[in-house]
């Protein structure tokens, strides 16, 4: 369990080890406060969708999963992308409703990037990795929340660096996105240092 | 076969379950409740949960100026919210100063109704209302500026003070620029524009300053100067302005939906010397102010400095020259920044801020005692502000209308 948690946050960090969800990572990292908000949204979405998808996969989609319904030879695992995306889309819409109702300023600040979580590769990636690595539903809870925390950690740290870089004396051509790409690379190098942490 | 069936059943059930869950969440989170809105000390009126305040007020015939149409970019629809402070939206952080936000100021377009709300507005805004006007006549003044004369209801015209603006609404439309009738002398300027199209599927509203003289207003006529909003040269893919394109296309007799009058750009009372500086359609409110003050018999010196690029961009020149002959305290100066070699021009050349500096500020005994009225493109305003700052004019003596840009 601890290994899965550590792996999901540090060694297998979705943003900095697999470069998933980099579009949002680059676009919503201008301010720490917005990055925190998005990070929190991703933790919730990831923490709910991965376990729900794990349950659906274990009891409905996997080969032999329909054993309980008396259909042991049926394999619906080819449906997993459309099913996972459906669950993620519903979850993101719910998230949008909640934020608009209770934290409207954050809802406005995230703008189009909030609905775009639906097709964020980090979110779908979290569910697909769960299947590939054959996590059971309990492990999926840990992996889902952990990978959400890992992505949030990465974007908040990145936003903090970018806030400071705004006042740094950078060469003209590297201001903005150029510098952001370099920082992403350096952070990724840093995270690769966690490599030996989990056996 | 049974596998396909199981897959279909599974997908359909899942989609139905997810939709049902979302609909239930929506019912709880966005309830269709009535919300009471109180303006100043008037009796509250009812609006619906989740509407934005700008729309709620408009539905109640309280029309706040909003040149951007509620996008949160013009910063004109300001209201003060009474009671509990509300967290500011990102657009409000950008448009309102810290002191304003502390005082409870908000942009009405950004405020969504989630509970009873009480707001404060200047009573004068409550006087602005929606009305229809009719296009009496229109003519081209320069290649890209069209003068419209609208017949407005007499009571609306009577409530207009020089410097005010009205908002005009264009209905959904779709036409090619080749349908716009251009006079022969400007045909050359328009040859490149023929291929453009103006398209919108929703009504759009933009603000235009009223250039009417007191005599125009007495007849109930609004004179508006419309500049065709074209894409900047570095962004040739952007479509032309929705409302200005339509206003170049409208024909005599068309009914136009409007609301107003709005704005607090107007002549100060007192007898300080007045210096008015304008460019392009910035002419509009300045023309209204100059005519109003001169006809009221203002005793102080009044000068009007107008900047344009070339001869073709000049208009109303004869009118102001006549005013200068009639009123000894009125002075009119024009500077062309880029006159064509083939057109005769014996007036001043250069930018208007330079003309103002050399022609007035440099030799004026006390430039800080005059009132300055600026209206024109943002670059011109910035240059004039620079020249005034150099001459030691405090910002409190400078009044400008930058069209909310």
What does this molecule look like?
The complex is a heterodimer of chains A (199) and B (405). Chain A has one domain. Helix content of chain A is 67%, strand content 0%. Chain A has eight helices and no strands. In chain A, α6 (121-132) runs antiparallel to α7 (137-165). Chain A is globular, with a radius of gyration of 18 Å. Chain A starts with a helix and ends in a 7-residue tail after the last helix. The mean pLDDT of chain A is 89. By secondary structure, chain B is an alpha/beta fold. Chain B folds into three domains: 34-122, Beta-grasp domain (Ubiquitin-like (UB roll), Roll), CATH 3.10.20; 128-262, Translation factors (Elongation Factor Tu (Ef-tu), domain 3, Beta Barrel), CATH 2.40.30.10; 274-401, Nucleotide-binding domain of ferredoxin-NADP reductase (FNR) module (Rossmann fold), CATH 3.40.50.80. Helix content of chain B is 29%, strand content 27%. Chain B has helices at residues 2-29, 53-59, 90-95, 98-102, 123-127, 154-158, 187-190, 214-218, 242-249, 283-295, 317-326, 352-361, 378-390; strands at residues 34-39, 45-48, 78-81, 105-107, 117-120, 129-142, 145-151, 165-170, 173-176, 197-200, 204-209, 221-227, 255-262, 274-279, 302-308, 330-336, 348-349, 371-375, 398-401. In chain B, the strands form four sheets. A six-stranded antiparallel β-sheet of chain B has the order 11-8-13-6-7-12. In chain B, α11 (317-326) links the parallel β15 and β16 (330-336). Chain B is globular and about 90 Å long. The model of chain B has no long low-confidence stretch (mean pLDDT 88).
Short description:
Chain A has 199 residues and is an all-alpha fold. Chain A has eight helices and no strands. In chain B, helix 12 packs parallel to helix 13.
Mean pLDDT of chain A: 89
Beta-strand percent range of chain B? 25-35%
CATH architecture of the largest domain in chain B: Beta Barrel
**What is the assembly state of the chains in this entry?**
heterodimer
Strand arrangement, major sheet of chain B: 11-8-13-6-7-12
The first-level CATH class name of the largest domain in chain B: Mainly Beta
Biggest beta-sheet profile of chain B: 6 strands, antiparallel
């Amino acid at each position: 369990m601890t290994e899965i948690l550590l792996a999901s946050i540090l060694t297998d960090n979705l943003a900095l080890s697999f470069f998933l969800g980099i579009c949002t990572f680059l676009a919503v990292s201008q301010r720490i406060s917005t990055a925190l908000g998005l990070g929190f949204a991703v933790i919730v979405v990831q923490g709910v969708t991965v376990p729900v998808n794990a349950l659906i996969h274990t009891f409905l989609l996997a080969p032999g999963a329909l054993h309980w319904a008396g259909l042991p030879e049926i394999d619906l695992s080819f449906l997993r992308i459309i099913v996972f995306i459906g669950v993620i889309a519903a979850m993101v819409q719910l998230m949008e409703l909640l934020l608009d109702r209770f934290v409207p300023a954050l809802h406005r600040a995230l703008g189009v990037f909030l609905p775009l979580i639906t097709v964020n590769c980090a979110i779908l990636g979290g569910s697909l990795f769960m299947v590939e690595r054959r996590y059971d539903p309990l492990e999926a809870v840990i992996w889902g929340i952990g990978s959400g925390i890992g992505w949030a950690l990465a974007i908040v740290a990145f936003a903090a660096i970018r806030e400071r870089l705004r006042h740094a004396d950078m060469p003209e051509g590297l201001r903005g996105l150029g510098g952001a790409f370099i920082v992403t690379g350096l952070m990724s190098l840093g995270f690769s240092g966690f490599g030996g942490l989990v056996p | 076969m049974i596998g396909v069936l199981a897959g279909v059943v599974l997908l359909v059930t899942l989609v139905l379950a997810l939709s049902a869950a979302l609909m239930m969440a929506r019912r709880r989170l966005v309830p269709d409740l009535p919300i009471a809105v109180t303006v100043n000390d008037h009796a509250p009126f009812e609006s619906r949960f989740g509407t934005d305040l700008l729309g709620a007020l408009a539905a109640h015939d309280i029309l706040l100026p909003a040149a951007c149409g509620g996008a949160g970019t013009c910063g004109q629809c300001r209201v003060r919210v009474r009671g509990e402070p509300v967290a500011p939206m990102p657009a409000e952080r950008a448009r309102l100063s810290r002191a304003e936000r502390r005082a409870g100021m908000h942009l009405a377009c950004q405020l969504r109704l989630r509970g009873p709300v009480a707001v404060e507005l200047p009573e004068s805004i409550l006087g602005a209302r929606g009305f229809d006007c009719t296009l009496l006549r229109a003519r081209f003044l320069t290649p890209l500026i069209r003068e419209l004369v609208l017949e407005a209801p007499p009571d609306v015209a009577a409530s207009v003070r020089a410097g005010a603006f009205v908002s005009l609404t264009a209905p959904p439309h779709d036409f090619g620029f080749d349908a716009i009738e251009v006079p022969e002398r400007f045909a050359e300027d328009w040859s490149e524009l023929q291929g453009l199209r103006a398209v919108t599927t929703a009504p759009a509203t933009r603000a235009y300053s009223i250039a009417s003289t007191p005599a125009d207003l007495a007849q109930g006529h609004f004179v508006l100067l419309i500049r065709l909003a074209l894409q900047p040269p570095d962004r040739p893919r952007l479509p032309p302005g929705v409302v200005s394109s339509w206003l170049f296309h409208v024909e005599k007799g068309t009914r136009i939906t409007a609301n107003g009058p709005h704005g607090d750009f107007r002549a100060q009372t007192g007898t300080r010397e007045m210096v008015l500086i304008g460019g392009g359609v910035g002419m509009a409110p300045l023309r209204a102010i100059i005519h109003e003050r001169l006809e009221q018999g203002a005793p102080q010196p009044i000068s009007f400095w107008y900047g344009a690029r070339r001869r073709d961009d000049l208009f109303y020149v004869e009118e102001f020259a006549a005013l200068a002959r009639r009123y000894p305290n009125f002075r009119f100066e024009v500077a062309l920044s880029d006159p064509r070699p083939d057109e005769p021009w014996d007036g001043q050349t250069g930018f208007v801020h330079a003309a103002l500096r050399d022609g007035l500020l440099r030799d004026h005994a006390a430039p800080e005692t005059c009132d300055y009225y600026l209206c024109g493109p943002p670059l011109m305003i910035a240059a004039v502000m620079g020249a005034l700052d150099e001459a030691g004019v405090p910002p409190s003596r400078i009044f400008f209308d930058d069209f909310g840009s």
